[in-house]
Amino acid sequence: MKLSITAKPLSKEERVEKIDDAHYTVAVKEPPIQGRANAAIIRALAEHFQVAPSRVRIVMGHTSRQKIVDVDL
Q: Is the pTM higher than 0.70?
């Protein structure tokens, strides 16, 4: 399933907020340095959808706040 994600790095708490079926906001504590925020987003989405982190992949937007993520359910 492809999702449109708005990333919010350096947040006070980690959360995944559903906007609609294909749009989510993911807040993570990690900074957007050396892929740390992307890794935290993958972990947060994997936990939210109850899948292994290896089944969550960022398809587009590695250096942007707007990302397209593929979740293999």
A: yes
